Amino acid sequence: xxxxxxxxxxxxxxxxxxxxxxxxxxxxxxxxxxxxxxxxxxxxxxxxxxxxxxxxxxxxxxxxxxxxxxxxxxxxxxxxxxxxxxxxxxxxxxxxxxxxxxxxxxxxxxxxxxxxxxxxxxxxxxxxxxxxxxxxxxxxxxxxxxxxxxxxxxxxxxxxxxxxxxxxxxxxxxxxxxxxxxxxxxxxxxxxxxxxxxxxxxxxxxxxxxxxxxxxxxxxxxxxxxxxxxxxxxxxxxxxxxxxxxxxxxxxxxxxxxxxxxxxxxxxxxxxxxxxxxxxxxxxxxxxxxxxxxxxxxxxxxxxxxxxxxxxxxxxxxxxxxxxxxxxxxxxxxxxxxxxxxxxxxxxxxxxxxxxxxxxxxxxxxxxxxxxxxxxxxxxxxxxxxxxxxxxxxxxxxxxxxxxxxxxxxxxxxxxxxxxxxxxxxxxxxxxxxxxxxxxx
Length: 441
Hints:
The termini are far apart. The chain has 19 helices and 14 strands.
């Protein structure tokens, strides 16, 4: 039996039973099972493919199964989803191989009766793969939810924000493969030199469409094994996230506080903008995350970043009014990075809706650290107003000494009036929100 498929099944089981995030669970399971090379690539494709298309796969499975998919005992449904994904989406895998491997998984993880059901359902699906059951389109929300495998509550929320056409474009973008984007480290190299070095090693390099200093890479293999990575000439960072330092107007010699710093990308971008002159205090609650920030700073050749354990909601009197710029990259629902973390969409809505209380508490506390005339920069990797504009609107209503201030971003975006939401289907970035607020001098 293929190691890729068995490992993929274990990852899906971990996500379902332990609430694990797919990216972390995948990497951990690949290491435990010793899966590398082509098998590791196939395993990753299977895990992300199933998660990206889960509701649609269930629709197809349900059409050929005597039981409703949600009535099937785990991990039987996981096995059927893996098989169905291979049949529907992976042309290079013969249907018989997808069926037979799924049957073997059922024998190993369930019992003979389950193997018979898997065999029957997937054979029917393979026989009808060119005439798959249609999705009823009378109910717009239900249709979009199944077609693009997003929860109904999210589709319902997006329609008044974006309209039908752009909602569908956004949902489709979430099921596409996100490009690997990196930020050039200006402390160690230039865009031209890094492009030349990477191209010489056979990597395809494309400058981002509109964010200077960001590159899209393909064909990297294990990125961490590249000399350019090990030597700290690049930082893996989405273009929208890399704009935080520019939006905040960070300059050499400033004192900067990053209150929710892990894994360190915003702190590192701030250090780049400062030319490593000044100080960046990077905070997190957990020492293991602070260790990663220190390791990242060392790899990138950054000396101005220092770490400290701190809760963004707890006041530190010694920091009051002490910083030129305070960055609040608040914990959020992550609905802007579904392309990279497809399982975000399946988290419980009630858990996500509790986040604004935490976001507001962190923002209120962080504001006390901004010196008069300084900048407070709030950001998230989500696209819902409840976590973005509504948070900053309430904050500004309660803090009259702060006001939104225009920020200069690269063209074609250009000048933004104090806040900006980025969308993957519009800007070729993650979904991301930035709001720049200035404290009165």
